[in-house]
Amino acid sequence: MSVKPPRPYYVPVGNEEQVFKAAYRQNLSIVLKGPTGCGKTRFVEAMAHDLDRPLITVACHDDLTTADLVGRFLLHGGETEWVDGPLTRAVRDGAICYLDEVVEARQDTTVVLHPLADHRRQLPIERLGITLDAAPGFGLVVSYNPGYQSVLKDLKDSTRQRMVAIDFGFPTPDVEEKILVNEARIDHERAAELVRLGQAIRRLETGGLREVASTRVLIAAGQLIAEGLSAREAARAAIAGPLTDDSTVTRGLAEMIDVYMPDSTAD
Amino acid sequence: MSVKPPRPYYVPVGNEEQVFKAAYRQNLSIVLKGPTGCGKTRFVEAMAHDLDRPLITVACHDDLTTADLVGRFLLHGGETEWVDGPLTRAVRDGAICYLDEVVEARQDTTVVLHPLADHRRQLPIERLGITLDAAPGFGLVVSYNPGYQSVLKDLKDSTRQRMVAIDFGFPTPDVEEKILVNEARIDHERAAELVRLGQAIRRLETGGLREVASTRVLIAAGQLIAEGLSAREAARAAIAGPLTDDSTVTRGLAEMIDVYMPDSTAD
Amino acid sequence: MSVKPPRPYYVPVGNEEQVFKAAYRQNLSIVLKGPTGCGKTRFVEAMAHDLDRPLITVACHDDLTTADLVGRFLLHGGETEWVDGPLTRAVRDGAICYLDEVVEARQDTTVVLHPLADHRRQLPIERLGITLDAAPGFGLVVSYNPGYQSVLKDLKDSTRQRMVAIDFGFPTPDVEEKILVNEARIDHERAAELVRLGQAIRRLETGGLREVASTRVLIAAGQLIAEGLSAREAARAAIAGPLTDDSTVTRGLAEMIDVYMPDSTAD
Amino acid sequence: MSVKPPRPYYVPVGNEEQVFKAAYRQNLSIVLKGPTGCGKTRFVEAMAHDLDRPLITVACHDDLTTADLVGRFLLHGGETEWVDGPLTRAVRDGAICYLDEVVEARQDTTVVLHPLADHRRQLPIERLGITLDAAPGFGLVVSYNPGYQSVLKDLKDSTRQRMVAIDFGFPTPDVEEKILVNEARIDHERAAELVRLGQAIRRLETGGLREVASTRVLIAAGQLIAEGLSAREAARAAIAGPLTDDSTVTRGLAEMIDVYMPDSTAD
Amino acid sequence: MSVKPPRPYYVPVGNEEQVFKAAYRQNLSIVLKGPTGCGKTRFVEAMAHDLDRPLITVACHDDLTTADLVGRFLLHGGETEWVDGPLTRAVRDGAICYLDEVVEARQDTTVVLHPLADHRRQLPIERLGITLDAAPGFGLVVSYNPGYQSVLKDLKDSTRQRMVAIDFGFPTPDVEEKILVNEARIDHERAAELVRLGQAIRRLETGGLREVASTRVLIAAGQLIAEGLSAREAARAAIAGPLTDDSTVTRGLAEMIDVYMPDSTAD
Amino acid sequence: MSVKPPRPYYVPVGNEEQVFKAAYRQNLSIVLKGPTGCGKTRFVEAMAHDLDRPLITVACHDDLTTADLVGRFLLHGGETEWVDGPLTRAVRDGAICYLDEVVEARQDTTVVLHPLADHRRQLPIERLGITLDAAPGFGLVVSYNPGYQSVLKDLKDSTRQRMVAIDFGFPTPDVEEKILVNEARIDHERAAELVRLGQAIRRLETGGLREVASTRVLIAAGQLIAEGLSAREAARAAIAGPLTDDSTVTRGLAEMIDVYMPDSTAD
Fold it and tell me: What is the percent of chain A where pLDDT is above 70?
């Protein structure tokens, strides 16, 4: 009786939807490569919607262990009781399991993916002494940001070669403007202004900047504008602040903001 | 029937109150950047008061784990019983959760914030196999001191770009004088003297000084004066002592104290 | 009554099947050396089929402990109950135990293999205070990729010298073409095209490339073609994407793909 | 009915008693800085006596965790039962809590002090889900030796700036002589001889010496003399031995001992 | 009623049997020094047989703890029950305890040996609060390979000086030939061929080779020959493969094999 | 009714017995400094005998924790039950507690000694929430070898300055000869020969030698001689073997042995 929710808002840039669906149909795992805030999570949400599969997302981190993915025994009434982890639930239910920023996880969590990611499609659960065959519909998707991987934190080649890769960049200006209007509820003019600022920042040599302005920070600036802040105030708080702690770079970004937001209420 | 307590004493310096409230209304997370002892904690207390939300503060540290934030199972009468952590309590109750010095925490504690900090506003609790939607009114605020972040300890870009930034510095002399009178219960003349000393120390090249004199140490010096110590004794114990262990620098600070506190009882 | 499943598809390249079976008959352990994705796992599956022994595979990783291999006590109804690990099950049942990427495991997991790998063929289980004699038919097989072992992660000499080594490379072009046709369900022409591309990439100096294109990624590309993607799209997603994150190298691979897939639908 | 014990023997050197009591009355935390064996512990004992508060001392070390300070659950009769740590006991009882060599503790133990050390005077106990307000009379005192802090082990600025500092050195010769007579039960002449030796050693460039002779080692030498050893034997065992392992430096110290103890029974 | 099994096959090279037995009779501990695969384990088995003592062997590794040697509490039916480790069993039963590759163990495991290895012959079990006197007949034997000890992993001097040392090398050619005939069940001619190859490899400067060919790998090659492989195939798989991963060195070894196995079936 | 056992065999070299007993009577802790195998353990056994106190010895190591010294809770019948560690037993019973090679222990184990080692003579047991006063007769003795302390592993100055130091070297030739006759049950001539060899080795520049020949290894050589080995065989196994793994140094030692044992049966 539950009504299917509307498709998450996602505007395709290239052939990413075809590649995703072809790989999914062939039981191939998928790795999404791209910078932070460019829409990878939203893309997976849209794909899960189109393919009509539940989506289980895991934000990976340094201390994520195999047990966090696969499950563990908990004590209930003097009995130990097994509780499935998110990966096991996805394997049993035929869901799409999305491991966000997978390289943050410890190596053991990536290797546990191997028998799932190749022709075996199996999840061995050593603690239970069983091996699960993935239910039809199960899909494995991981993401990572090639921009800031260190040598220590990288996807192993034997993991990478088990996956089909889809590259993500930032959307084109007109697509990004559409996204801003839709997400921040601001008018096209303001959205275009923010997109031009974002583009200018992305053109900078990244000296001093840790990463360029993502679509996400442009949306946040838009939201502050929608809340009544001036465009300059909004851009300083939502764009310049997150991008740098350096006072010289901050000054430079403030000047760019003044140039690209000329009609803003002076402040 | 409980009467609302008075507003915590906070004097705004710029547009920080507007930016905070706009971001809060838009469900955007907030990062406060600034040196130790400049009033970030007090500011959040005042904002929580104005927005009429409970405030839950967590002092982050090296060994703070996800479980410390989210909760854990404890054994009671042979049963394991789940006990919510402070972040989960804030998510359930629609409180403002303030993570002080968030970069001190282990990486996993910052990544657990991601689904809460973006449009999803969700807290997955893997141990319970559930995902909580944040109650209306929930807000996430973190702080850090850009002055002494190392490469190893820094907020990840994917976390930063999920947040609106507010920069903090020390208050202007007249605001700081007002704060000292209010907090240390000393007269304006003594307060002005301490503020001038603080300003002089902040103008020093920081060679030998670990960090400059914060508003907090000026208040402490004021408190010692209110307790009957001479201004020089108070400044040495509450300002010079915490700032350095180096004997040459200590001597230099002592001379500055003598210059700026000329009318102090000789000692 | 269970019918023996068909032999896993494996085409021999040299005398690897004879060496494996001779070593197995002499109770000698075996180490398979070779790059990722060249067919080591499939080879062991075929050998276990020919020798009519069950196969127990363990994907090794950084946090794999002796207990993960040998077994541990779990709490059930207030009693601790011993649960065999995969190695112990293999020892009791006379199965072939295959430790994939064994150098990833912690040193203790490799040393526990010593009494099993030499003339003793015993598994001491300290936690139970017993020593198991391996059942007839037990065989120990490990694999590793000599290409990316660091000094820190390497098989100890005392472990290596307990094993017979079989070297693996990629199959010859005609064998690889046969594999692609069989596994990806594409025609011989397309398969030959992919094999020629793979060969060309393997001839490159590996500057920029992390590892060369394995048979596995060629199969994945074939699968995407079978799903309706153009050969170029398929090769970019399944071959170039997994091999590099570098934009210059990516461009170079894209040009190679264009050269080797001239008759592909332009895109 | 319990009679208050006598005041611990402590002879003030400067205004340290006034500063301590003023800070205590203002609810300010206190950091004692000074070399090992100069009387910091005894000073805190005397202050607690004068202020009529119980004293709870914790010797900090590398593995001291927050739980060691705050408390933990222990299992009793199948129930977990909370047991307060020393800091929590001090907070509940309004005692003075003295953390000796606080920089030895792990960072988390110092950060847990923050809400206690500033205007909040609160101890959040996350495991219980409660926050304790410090009882009236609670005071926080920490000590450290600036002489041998490494970069890795240092009090964080945000901790230091929450505290009033009191510097300690060794007592003046006449005070130290009085202390030796009182503590070691030797006559003034012997005490003066030991003080002169201690002073001479403190004047040495510290090449080869790890730290200078503290009041504590002079007392120990006095005790051995009181027990019948010759002054030279006593000084070698109690002063030279603890100060160095180097044979050249040992010889130098032995010669100084011979010079400063001329009337000692030859040995 | 149990019949004593036959003596393990061991051919002495020098006075190692006399030294072992003299040290054993004097309750002195013994350290066996020598390369991997030269027969140390077999020697201890033969000595235990001659002295008519049970032998308990422990393969040491990085994660071997004192508890693994001494014992631990396990939970049974709500009670913790002590389970002796192998060292404790040997101490109680007067067995010979052989710690193979002892330097692999953590330092605590070597220090726990001290009171056992000197005149005290005691094993303190702190967890039980008892100290066991070793039963008559108890003997402690450890082995290590001086060739690949790093600075980090070495036997402490205070441990070494509690032991009598016996040096092991590879057997002389005629002894080694006898061993091969006996262990691999091949004829003398084939055995002599393998011994000559082994000797040639041992004469090589070890550039590229990790360690030289042990008696153990020669036996393995002999076993493959007995199974029907050609001598060259056997030597490549059992000798060259375990010794190197380097392709140049592999080629060099292959040429040596061709030279020393001229009458092998060409392949 | 138990008869006091005979005094452990110890021959004094200097005033070490007087210093030990004077410090003990004054409740001062004692640190024994000296090389491995020079008789420190035996000395403490003799002192405990003379002072008629029980002796509790703890061999320190890398993983020794405070809990190992102080005690821990163990689960018995569903109840946690406290079990005293050796230090707590000594404190309660007024025994002498000897921590052998104390610098091997983790820093926390040395800091727990502070309140015991100074005028407080107290052992705080945080887990029990109690503080024990040491029973009369309690004494604390630690030992370490200054020869091989690294910067990382050293006794903290604040620990050292709480202790009286006694230096140990090897005994004089005639004392050492007496010890050998007594301990190894060999005649004076053989003992003198071994002592002369030991002295010669101690005169060597230590290039290549890890440490010099201790009294302990001379005794072991004597024991092998008593068992019927030739003096040369005994010296090679018990002296040269433990001192070096280097083949050049081994050859040099073998030549020295031949020179100093000229009348040995040739071998």
Answer: 86
B37: distance to nearest CA of chain D, Å?
Answer: 7
Residues in Cβ contact with F113 at an 8 Å cutoff, skipping those fewer than 6 apart: F29, F99, F140, F142, F159, F162
* Of the partner residues F59, F75, F104, the one whose CB lies closest to the CB of residue E80: F75
E strand or H helix at E24, and its extent?
Answer: helix E16-25
Using an 8 Å Cβ cutoff, are B96 and B47 in contact?
Answer: yes
User: Would you call D106 and B238 a contact, using CB atoms and an 8 Å cutoff?
Assistant: no
B230 contacts: CB under 8 Å, gap ≥ 6 = B264, B265, B267
Amino acid at A105: A
Looking up tokens 């003592």 gives E53
Rounded CA separation F3/B95 (Å): 74
Q: Which distant-in-sequence residues (6+ apart) come within 8 Å of E10 by Cβ?
A: E39, E42, E43, E45, E46
DSSP 3-state of D173? helix
Q: Is the pLDDT of residue B238 over 90?
A: yes
What is this model's ipTM? 0.81
The CB density around residue A246, as the number of other CB atoms within 10 Å, is 15
Residue D266's pLDDT band (boundaries 50, 70, 90)?
very low
First-to-final CA distance of chain E: 53
Beta strands in chain F (DSSP E): 29-33, 55-59, 71-76, 79-84, 96-100, 122-125, 130-133, 139-144, 163-167
Where residue F191 falls among pLDDT bands split at 50, 70, 90? Answer: very high
- This prediction has a pTM of 0.72
B98 to chain D, minimum CA–CA distance in Å? Answer: 13
Give the mean model confidence (pLDDT) for residues C101-129: 79
Nearest chain E Cα distance for residue F203, angstroms: 18
Task: Give chains near F: 3+ CB pairs under 8 A.
Answer: D, E
Q: What was the pLDDT predicted at E151?
A: 44
Question: Smallest CA–CA separation between D16 and chain F, in Å?
Answer: 22
CB-based contact, D135 to chain B, within 8 Å: no
Cβ-contact C219, C184 below 8 angstroms? yes
Touching subunits of E (3+ CB pairs, under 8 Å) are C, F
Max mean pLDDT range (A252-256, C76-80, E211-215): A252-256
The C-alpha atoms of residue E172 and residue E192 are separated, in whole angstroms, by 12
User: Could you tell me if D166 lies within 8 Å of chain B, comparing CB atoms?
Assistant: yes
Answer for the pair F237, E164: CB distance below 8 angstroms, yes or no: yes
Nearest-by-Cβ selection for E28 from F183, F223, F245: F223
- Whether D231 and F25 have beta carbons less than 8 Å apart is answered as no
- Option in A61, A74, A86 nearest B111 (CB): A61
Are F and A close enough to touch, i.e. 3+ CB pairs under 8 angstroms?
Answer: no
F153 touches chain D (CB under 8 A): no
Q: Per-residue pLDDT averaged across A128-135, rounded? A: 88
CA atoms within 13 A on the CB side of B212: 19
**Portion of chain A with pLDDT greater than 90, in percent:** 52
C18–E238: do the CB atoms touch at under 8 Å? no
> Quick check: F158 and D37 CB within 8 A?
yes
- Smallest Cβ–Cβ distance between C161 and the set E100, E148, E242 belongs to E242
Q: Under an 8 A CB cutoff, do F166 and D233 touch?
A: no
Q: Is D165 on the interface with F (CB under 8 A)?
A: no
User: What is the rounded distance in angstroms from the CA atom of residue D31 to the CA atom of residue A66?
Assistant: 44
Q: What is the pLDDT of residue D104?
A: 74
Confirm or reject contact between F133 and chain D (CB < 8 A).
Answer: no
Query: Over 90: is that where the pLDDT of B35 sits?
Result: no
Using the Cα atoms of residue D47, residue D50, residue D51 and residue D56 in order, give the sign of their dihedral: positive
pLDDT reported for residue C153: 59
Q: What is the DSSP letter of C112?
A: T
Question: Chain B within 8 Å of A241 (Cβ-Cβ)?
Answer: yes
